UniProtKB/TrEMBL annotation:
Superkingdom as given in the UniProt entry: Bacteria
Protein name listed in UniProt: Glyoxalase/bleomycin resistance protein/dioxygenase
InterPro entries linked to this entry: Glyas_Bleomycin-R_OHBP_Dase, Glyas_Fos-R_dOase_dom, VOC_core
Pfam family, one: Glyoxalase
Keywords from the named record: Dioxygenase, Oxidoreductase
Annotated VOC domain residues: 4-133
Native species: Thauera phenylacetica B4P
Length: 141
């Protein structure tokens, strides 16, 4: 099987609040919430880059869809990373996230691997890393 990931789905407590955080706070483009909350199909998609989407799905609906117990709010077993092209962009993205309502977990700092990174938690408890890695170039926006 060829490995392929095209969508990262995050379970959220309040779909409208989560959409506002990513769309209005971080400036990520979306068509907004699509589907029906009554049928547990309401979801919002954000195009991250060609072929990769972030989906926001109500935590209860995600559990129902996957056939698992609903995880407690504010928990996440993964870390999402947003890589930037320049060192100073780490602080810029962290400030934007904080202004949008993110909780800063770790202020930007130099790392043991030669880069620069900071960490924040979105309003639903999902941790994000914002990183600049000089050994892993990213195109500037």
């Amino acid at each position: 099987m060829k490995p392929r990931i095209s969508v990262f789905t995050l379970g959220v407590d309040d779909l409208a609040r989560a959409v506002a955080f990513y769309r209005d706070g971080l400036g990520w483009p979306t068509r907004g919430i699509v589907g029906s909350a009554e049928q547990h199909s309401a979801v919002a998609f954000f195009a991250l880059q060609p072929g990769i989407q972030l989906a926001l799905f109500a935590r209860a609906s995600l559990a129902l869809e996957a056939g698992v117990a609903e995880p407690p709010s504010g928990t996440s077993g993964c870390l999402l990373s947003h890589n930037v092209a320049r060192r100073e962009q780490v602080a810029e993205v962290m400030a934007q996230a904080a202004a949008a309502g993110a909780r800063i977990l770790r202020v930007p700092r130099d790392t043991a691997w030669g880069g620069h990174a900071g960490y924040f938690q979105d309003p639903d408890g999902h941790p994000w890393e914002v990183a600049w890695n000089p050994k892993w170039p990213v195109e500037d926006d």
